[in-house]
Amino acid sequence: MTSIQGILLAFLLTAAVVSIFAFKARPAYRLVELLLSCGAAVLVLFPDLTTLIAHLLGVGRGTDLLLYVSLIVGLHAVLLLYVRTRELERKITGQTRAIALRNACGTDGR
Hints:
Oligomer: single chain
Number of strands: 0
Number of domains: 2
Number of helices: 4
Radius of gyration: 22 Å
Distance between the termini: 70 Å
Strand content: under 5%
Order of helices and strands: HHHH
């Protein structure tokens, strides 16, 4: 094992442990995190496997395959965060309006 593999495996282990605690109420997310971490660990330990998979999918190099997958996953994550942010903004706006109307009508409970 090379030193970079050790560093990457340590990082993956740390990320997996943090994610398990972050997703403690969501078992499905914990399972997905565990599967992704194990898959990443296998690819770190056997880097030629990415090239083999890339060739099976018609991509020239394993590095290119990882780049393509990373771009797709990154864009998906950004879109999910955008949708979630918009949803939260709508909820906050609704709550703010309700409080403003309640206070304007003099029914704030005082």
